[in-house]
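Issue: ligand-bound run for uridine-5'-diphosphate - logging full I/O for the record.

Environment: standard queue, default settings, no custom constraints.

Inputs:
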Amino acid sequence: MNILVTGGLGYIGSHTCVKLIEAGYNPIIIDNLYNSKKSVLQRIKQITSFTPQFYYGDICDKPFVDSIFKKHDFTAVIHFAGLKAVGESVIKPLEYYEKNVYGSICLAQVMRDNNVKNLIFSSSATVYGEKNPVPYVESYPTGNITNPYGWSKFMVEQSYIDLSNAEKEWSISLLRYFNPVGAHPSGLMGEDPQGIPNNLMPYISQVAIGKREKLSVYGNDYPTKDGTGVRDYIRVEDLAIGHVAALKQINKSGIHIYNLGSGIGNSVLEVIAAYEKACGHKLAYQIVERRAGDIAAFWADASRAKQELDWQTQYTLDEMAKDSWNWQMKNPNGYPNE
Ligand code: NAD
Ligand code: UDP
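Outputs:
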């Protein structure tokens, strides 16, 4: 079964391609290499003994995307391609709305033109905004978001919900990820941030390997267990398996919304402690001001995915830290250029 994977060379997309291959699917990738490298294909091959077909190009380029639909019969599309840096989205909102919103609409139009109507979309817990109590449940209202990245996910969700209301034969899954971390246990694939990492675990990894002097902990005066921010960290492998599980829905028309998280909240200090255990030494950090736009604490109610997809996370924070450190040690400069 051919599955089109947009953004399939990125962090989550590449891990998902491995899980798709292991489950017997044939992932075919579109990626514009904006935030990834072609050498990821080699790593997928090293893990699975199979190299997925790859097309270099942009999802906003409809004739290009259409030409790929003319070459292959797709059962479904898993749509990861997009821009994901929250801070950057505040500075470049138009680019975020173009690539994330316009790109997602172009993709759905080409799918409709080619009569492929099974779609799985990478959404985010950010759509729950600032006002909902934890744990987040799929039925909560969305909105009250603090940045253009989050609004772009909200807008794509809304366009896809409207599409499925208008055209009943679509089956669309909106997967709301919590905080993906970790790496493939082989150390061959992991997160490869360009420049200074924005997210916690990649930053800690670079402190651990000596690339950065110390971590800034953004605030220790939140109303949480130790005053630092609390998030629901989900191992990227578990997340990838969640996509394979979501493919089960493709014959059920309508909108299917799932939180993909562990249901457990961990603080920044707990993440540091887990990483120290993994790398075997203390990590330097300092407490600084809260980061603008941060929420004190959120985690998932992950029961719907468990009931309907028979999916739940398997891995602990210690295991996520161990895999992240393994990847960091083996690939101190990320993926090779070619
Ligand atoms: P990533 O940047 O590693 O992967 C995205 C991939 O898409 C990259 O390979 C990039 O080159 C490609 N791409 C970007 N714009 C494109 C375009 N217009 N056309 C073709 N390819 C394009 O990001 P990721 O962490 O793997 O995230 C995947 C998806 O999951 C994104 O939509 C992201 O918003 C969403 N998400 C990520 C997180 C997270 O913390 N990583 C959390 C929630 C949701
Ligand atoms: N965080 C931090 N220092 C950093 C990066 C993040 O203290 O250098 C904190 C952040 O305030 C939040 C948690 O770590 O409480 C997770 O942040 P991340 O950016 O990874 O995810 P998000 O905020 O998008 O959930």
